[in-house]
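Contributing new records

If you add data, match the layout below exactly. Sequence lines come first and carry their own label; structure lines follow with theirs. Keep one chain per record. Anything else will be rejected by the validation script.
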Amino acid sequence: MNSEYFQHKLVKPDSIELRDYQTNLANDAKNENSLIVLPTGLGKTTIALQIMAHVLTQNKGGVLFLAPTRVLVNQHFEFLRENLLLEDIGIVTGEDLVNKRKKAWGNSVVCATPEITRNDIERNMVDLEQFSLVIFDEAHRAIGDYAYTGIASHFKQKSLILGMTATLPSEKIKATEIVASLGIQKILQRSDESSDVQPYIQKTKTEWITVELPPEMKAIQTCLKIALDERYKTLRKNGIQIGQTQSLSALLRIRQYVLSQNRISAKPLFTAIRITYALNIFEAHGITSFLKFCERTKAKKGVGIKELFEKDPNFTRAIELANYARSKGIEHSKLPKLKEVISTVKDKVLIFTSYRDSVNVINESLTEMGINSEILIGKAGETGLKQKKQIETVQRFRDGKTKVLVATRVGEEGLDISEVNLVVFYDNVPSSIRFIQRKGRTGRKEAGRLLVLIAKDTIDEAYYW
């Protein structure tokens, strides 16, 4: 690998390492609306920078750089301020008031979130002629009524479009929709196996670690399963055709039919859906997450809730047993295993869990061990982290002040959390997009490890297979 640098009068000298595949992709995307598909961690933003520098020197107009979250927009903004030799780089997010946004829209380069961009275009606050290049980061989101599709409809005939993503959805219909909504003329794809990418790749070793639920948890699991079986029996008795394998998606599929055609099944169906959620959370995340889910559900006014929480002997027993287990300090067998793994590692560790309650459980348990750990979650809800907090948290982790970062999906989309050599999945997330985004976080500077924790005889195993 040569360590030469990308040279351009608009790019800070000796700052961007020259990589063949980046230059090749940038050159291919300069003249036609393109979608770049490249694994996370291989520098999509650097490719965007090269295309931007080219477009800006043509004197045809400015650049609009869109990304789905404020944290990501801020990251792009900082990256461009650091590497692009231009004074007028602006940032627009929903947190800014109208006057500040009006001023920001006048810059040559604007980094922005999609919803506010779409709204400001509709308010005629954006001069559409101003941007000759529009970049859609995390372009796999450009489906349905997501703001990207509306924005693209204004630009795809008159500006150069660049979409970037780590992976295209495997469903052909969705992939086709993304291409159509952004007006893409060619898809430029590279994988870890591509010959011009290979020299820059470090392999990630994936390890699947299985843990056994303790007897106290198995007893709770049994109660929940009996409660669920009873609902399935009632649904079948009411003439609902439902397969032998119990799954949330199967229950959700018949919901519409039950509401319109078979009203007597509404109560057992909605109760079955709730029990399934509770069971999945219990199996993958443990006692506290299960009890918190129950508290929230009980507080709602829904069909069958009173019956479930007050009269169902199996479900109420499960809650009793869970409270007792928690008083004895039992949480989930994944936690001791996680502590064991982390105590043997010197480097930074990134832990992903798809459920917000378990973020707190994991973080508290690591902090009690004396491990310097922080959480990264989205901004929604009372417990959410505001954008500024998210940015500061990521910065501390990147600077090595925090050893462990426990994150939900917020941490997945394009967050440049570099040099993490151990990534742990606390639960097993089936979605391929998310898997690849997470996997791409690790092993770019040196070989990385990816650990997936699986509880035996639970939803984790079903996802694994």
